[in-house]
Automatic annotation (TrEMBL):
Residues 108-232 form the GntR C-terminal domain. SUPFAM superfamilies: GntR ligand-binding domain-like, Winged helix' DNA-binding domain. It holds the Pfam family GntR. The keyword Membrane does not apply. GO terms for molecular function: DNA binding; DNA-binding transcription factor activity. This is Putative HTH-type transcriptional regulator.
Length: 240
């Protein structure tokens, strides 16, 4: 006999009802309202969110895929300690940024950026193709133009593109795999209102320096400039 808790396959949280329920339950665990080790049933999800059993089952499978819960036959969904979750999954990062623990998450992510992005910038200066290297000064110029003019939507889109391209141009598949995580962090700062109304001149200068270092094939220059960029983020968020 099939298990009603686990029939079907895990889905992405694309349905609005599914996404809302998944978000709320995950944040309940993060905030301690649903303690680790405690179980809830599909019926609880159905009643709380006024959803069908099919949607409740999809929510259960989605939370399980994020390692946020364990599904146990005849028990239900058992909350797992946050330390056991898929910490580098962009959805898990988003949940933590939506919670009251956002500062701790931003600190962890900024420390990750400090460890990875300067090295990735140096690697891009060494290994990126000339065609790719030539794109960095162009992007940096657009960043400055949109930042100084106050076109923040375009600036943020370009900033995500700049940092993602840097990681993907490093020649290191592990650095490249972090590009979506860095994009999630950058988007999260904007959505949470934790980005300055206007980019600081020093940050624009540092992006120019990273671009120049990569274009010139100067790993040390690219590395140091990227360290300044991420260090400024840590300072602005009062994470140091």
């Amino acid at each position: 006999m099939s298990d009603p808790m686990t029939d079907g396959t895990a889905t992405t949280a694309s349905d609005p009802m599914h996404a809302a329920a998944s978000d709320e339950l995950a944040i309940d665990i993060i905030e301690g309202r649903w303690p680790a080790g405690q179980a809830i049933t599909l019926e609880t999800i159905q009643d709380r969110f006024s959803v069908s059993r099919t949607v409740a089952r999809e929510v259960a499978k989605y939370l399980e895929s994020m390692q946020a819960v364990t599904i146990r036959r005849r028990v239900g969904l058992v909350a797992r300690p946050i330390g056991e979750w898929a910490a580098l999954n962009t959805q898990v990062i988003r949940w933590k940024l939506m919670s009251s623990h956002r500062k701790e998450q931003l600190r962890s992510l900024t420390e990750l950026r400090l460890a990875i992005e300067p090295a990735a910038a140096a690697a891009a200066a060494r290994y990126a193709s000339m065609e790719t290297k030539a794109m960095f000064p162009v992007l940096a110029a657009e960043l400055r133009k949109t930042g100084e003019s106050g076109d923040l939507d375009s600036f943020h889109d370009l900033d995500i593109r700049f940092h993602s391209m840097l990681l993907r141009s490093s020649g290191n598949e592990l650095f490249s795999s972090l590009s979506d995580i860095i994009a999630t962090v950058l988007k999260g700062r904007v959505e949470l209102g934790m980005y300055p109304q206007k980019p600081k001149p020093a940050a624009l200068d540092a992006h120019d320096a990273v671009a120049e270092g990569i274009w010139q094939g100067n790993p040390d220059k690219a590395r140091e400039a990227m360290r300044i960029i991420v260090g400024e983020v840590a300072d602005s968020l009062d994470l140091t």
